[in-house]
Input
Amino acid sequence: MPKLTIDGQAIEVPAGTTILQACLQRGREIPHYCYHEGLSIAGNCRICLIEVEKQPKLVIGCYTPVAEGMVVHTDSDKVKQARAAVMEFLLINHPLDCPICDQAGECRLQEYAVEYGDGTSRYTEPKLALSKAIDIGPHVTLDQERCIQCSRCIRFCDEITKTGELGFFQRGERSQIGIFPGKRLDNPYSGNVVDLCPVGALTLNEFRFKTRVWYLANTATICAGCARGCNVVVGVGKQQTLMTTRGQLDDRVKRIVPRVNEEVNGWWICDEGRLSYEHEQKAPRLEAARVAGKETAYDDAVKAAATKLAAAAKAGALGVIVSPRLVSEDVFAWKSVVSALGGGAFGVRSLLRGEDDTLLIRADKGANAQGAAWILGAGATERAVREAVAQGRVKTLLILGDPLDAGDSAIVEAPAGSGPEVVYCGPFASPSAARASVAVPCASWSEADGTYVNFEGRAQRVRRCHLPQGEARPGWRVAADLAEAAGAAATGWSSAAEVLAALGRAIKEFEGISFEAMGLLGLKAPVAAGV
Amino acid sequence: MLGAEFEKRVDALVARYPKPKGALLPVLWEVQRAKGWIDFDAEAWVAARLGLAPAHVHGCVTFYTMYKPRPMGKYHIQVCTTLSCMLRGSDELFAHLQRKLGIGSGETTPDGKFSLVRVECLGSCGTAPMFQLNDDFHENLTLETVDRLLESLP
Amino acid sequence: MERILTRNVDKENAQHLAVYESVGGYQALRKALSSMTPDALTDEVKKSGLRGRGGAGFSAGLKWSFMPKEVDPKRPHYFLINADESEPGTFKDRLLMEKDPHLVLEGSLLGAFAIRASVIYIYIRGEFVHAARVLDRAIAEAYAKGYAGKNILGSAWSCDVYVHRGAGAYICGEETALMSSLEGDRGYPRLKPPFPAQSGVWGCPTTINNVETVANVPFIVERGADWFLSVGKAPKNTGPKLYCLSGHVKRPGVYEAPMGLPLHELIYELGGGMLHDDRPLKAVIPGGSSVPVLRADECEVDLDFDSLAAKGTMLGSAGLMVMDSSTCMVAAMARIAHFYHHESCGQCTPCREGCGWLERVLQRIEGGRGMPQDLDLLLSVSNNIIGNTICALGDAAAMPAISFVTKFRDEFQHHVDAKACLTGTVALQGVR
Output
């Protein structure tokens, strides 16, 4: 492994590492725009120029591999001069859009200008004028003037999605990102170019002008869109000064962006996952518990539900349909509670749609389908439960999590007086909730901590991003309350972590899984089996 | 798109390169020779024929200044104005053409006969001032020889 | 003086194979294929001291020696002839291609043999339509006679030759941009390493040489490296040279002389002297517009690589642009700046933004709208470009700017302060 010196510090790194990588790995920032870990090296922005002794010119850190005995200076006067020069060049034609640009607050042009720039402009000529706010795809808007021609977006579409929608048109100073007339940037991963763009040239339509990024409270969690379990950061509003008309803090999810996990999603997320929060936001929420359609106090509703479920369980006529988006803690809690009540037939909904693609998207839209299967067994299928309902063996159906849709005529739209009795415990005011004799609000995906297991058996930590709406509680909490209301033994659970610990003791695949152990990047389970 | 003969010529060009993309510039020349300019339909055809993204083809058409993304005049006059030609009167020559034809750089006369453009060094500095008219160089120009040349064109 | 490179250019029908053969053409190719190994040929060229005639002046034989000595069947070798001749002031390659295409072909085939190439692409600028046609005809003749194609002259070596036309981009004369363009991309220069001999076009070992460079090779083969060393100034500035003379002289044109011709001789003897007898020499750019300018009092110099380097400029492409006393140096520099602004590929920040900035400031100064800080600004912007770009185009824009502003500062200052021109030329208003 080559030994070299960077800014006086001796280090040793594997051969093939570039100087930039060696610095970034050690937490030392060298400014860079066009370099991106997940893409080929372009070397065109020139902001990463650094000094290597014995070289006649400054070299770009992103492309220069380390060598034995190399002596590198990342902060010498020559380097400072070059960085200031490149910053000045980048800014001479750049429009002063900061007041109206989404990127403000997370813009590397702003950051490096403050850090490395001269602070004044010597440019007194007219700036180049290009087209702004160009609609190039269902999710992406292009501003050609803001572009610094780093080519990340082009490389993404060429190398990752291999769809090639974007290109440079014209030449020289007039180079501009563009799309072929009639074509759209509509591959399933189009939103990633917005993350990649270091400036505000590419913006996400669903986020444009929504909020300033410094008004976001960010939480690292896992996408609920499919069984891949892409690692994400969810940003919710924390805008104290801007209240809704009801005087409430608007802490809804404003955006989802990917975070890096080379074992799961690399640096990317699909558009559907990126916008999956809309699913939660557009569906009406069940904010208060309901009994026989009437708003009821939480405790009374829980008691009512407990009575019905206990009776059905004892009679051996209880069926449970579980959404594969439920966190493992909820699934385990319900399994334990139903078991304590006398047992029931569990079935996990199958959310297979389309096909796996060659990148991230899984046909299985159940983010925790694997976790649910480990807890309930592979034979716990929705079909088996439906058959039992159809044959009249199941007379009370507990629907957990995602509701059944209108159109589910056998159950939700069954003629009055026929079909099973429904108890719904989930987040949405849906046809299931309306049909249910008891509906108890539960926290949605972004409102509670928990554990998802992806299709490869990686256990990953889902985190609460904001408080549950209305009377909603985490699903395991509702289950525990229900058990107590039914007179069963107290679970003693007071946190998701405790449920997870109990889960780990009961189901061997979850042994050794804890929130600390999963951390930010998850843990490949089963841990105990040494796989 | 432009007939079987055209496609045979394209095939022959593609055969010269280990990868079809290598034939892009020659194929674009063939298109321009056949159609006079390169429109978006032609770009899409070339992209499909060579297995390229249309954006890539358009990126090349707009990078290389000799490809015409819109029709130019029957006689496309490209006047060299770089230093050696400037020293020998190219600016006066260009101004003369501007006045005579009534158009500026990048423009075409209303009857479609002439288009005029300033270009960079054409590698004919020893015979400056000069211009390229379609494929041909016209060198050692004077205002008189230019006038006679233009009058002679059908 | 014996004409070597230009011996055929005035002959009637010299483009035809029969005429070329009648003066001994393709004897060198015969000799090499029958009695030399590729490496021996490379050694001979290296020994001759032949330096690249495209602008960089790198030893041709040394460049050839970088190629792998064995051909991996999955990675054929390519020989690219750089006929993109777009450096302002340069028009020598065009002369050779139009008037003696077989000389260029024979030189190319010899080079291809030396580097074990199986394909030659002649990348010719799109504007040279006539030259491309002449080359195509010559190539057809060469194939018919067995000088190109399969088993050349009955040897085991096969090599195809194709003309590949560019379409209007000076940057494609830069060897890595040429490769990008040949592959069907925008003409963007590439990061180095890898160098072309390791991985060039289509990831294969590649060598790129200028037209005039390869035109020397048949003579080196026929007459030997020692002969080449006896022409010009051994050891490092050898061989015959084509000089392109343009601007304010009576007889502009291409002149051949042994390397090291004195600049005064080129202008005043071969070139017939200044265009107007009452307008003396003011400045010369000796090597195409990318090199620093020489004031009249700096023109006592031999035109070879090392002598010009010692004067702080370069031989480059040997495109000599002569300016007399009527020339406004501000206008000249503004025109040069426009060229680089127009030709910048736009890939990297300093050149993309800096070339436009330089032109705009110079246009203001030319038009009488200069500001006091402009001259130092030009120097500063130029220095911020130099050394910070992917390729040399940025340097090529910046170095002339620095040399003009430094050596003719009084003229620039006068434009700024007095809003008038010392040469008496009316300052142009407005922007092009």
Summary: Residues 103 and 109 of chain B are 6 Å apart (CA to CA).
